[in-house]
Amino acid sequence: MKHIIAMGFSLIPLAAPAAESGNDLLARYAQQAAEEDPAFNGFSAERGRTLFATEHPHGNDPAMACISCHTEDPRGAGEHRRTGKRIKPLAPSANPERLSNAYKVEKWFTRNCQDVLQRQCTPLEKGDVITWLLSVK
Amino acid sequence: MRRKMLIGSLIIGAGLGLGWILTGAGELRAEEDDEHGRRHEREHEEEGRGSRAPAAGPGQDSYMSECGSCHVPYPPGLLGARQWAVIMTRLNDHYGESATMTPETARTLAAYLQANAGRDGGSGAAADEELPRITTSAWFRDEHDEIGPEVWRRESIRSAANCGACHGGAEQGVYDEDGVRIPR
Q: Is residue A2 in some structural domain?
């Protein structure tokens, strides 16, 4: 519940500017992560990659994961697991539009984390995923 | 009736669109006679055969990107105003998935759908739990009655809601016969 409330507010500061870089995003998630946990000492691409690939079985879905719709290699195009719709690569190195709009990134974390983890992602988790997506060249 | 409703919702327009939904005014239309409805739908269909491109107007761009990110942007005319209203009030549990968005965006899209809605069909939203679907409507089943159950289940199709698997122009709202190809 605490996370959900925090999310609601974090939409506001993140909503304003349109074009920016993944690094701007990281700076803000780092600030939020440090507020949540004073022991925060940086993001990890490896943790981000693991979060992305980890299956979170629940209810009618034994293998729900980020990679159910995206791909293990974020330079490749994914496919929505239910509707079949093609999803362009998430890595900015393959698709420069990605991570360029904080509002959009936050919108998809809100939806996708809810569906996969059945809760919101923490700033640490979001920073880890973005660090990983930026690291893939 | 349909005409009146269309004009009505056009006049009510963008600003009041949400009020229309929230007050549940759309419910009043629920009582419509099914047969009558279907006949009109048919006529409508004959006129608009093929292209069902989401209409130009305020909200179109937003509709194409927001409601076209997880699936093709379904033609607004394929569901009725009441049905869209139900869908738009349940975005946090959208057919089992989260499609949450800011209230402003939701309001823009709801108004756009109200202004471009078709006629409320007799099917869909049967149980309270269930959201209305295009793919369970009578005309949809009619149009697609040659397609067997094993075809719908193909890995290349997955779901009847995956219009783009067979209709090459679905991203643009074009559903004419020439563009249809059922994948293996």
A: no
User: What's this model's pTM, rounded to 2 decimal places?
Assistant: 0.84
A84 touches chain B (CB under 8 A): yes
A63-98 tens-digit pLDDT: 899 999 999 999 999 999 999 999 999 999 999 999
- A48: in domain: yes
**CA atoms lying within 13 Å on the CB side of residue A78:** 22
Q: What is the ipTM of this complex?
A: 0.82
Does some domain include residue A12?
no
* Structural domains counted in chain A: 1
Helix runs in B89-170, H state only: 103-116, 138-143, 149-152
* B98 closest CB neighbour out of A15, A84, A111: A111
One-letter amino acid at A54 equals T
Q: What is the CATH number of the domain that holds A85?
A: 1.10.760.10
SS3 at position B96: coil
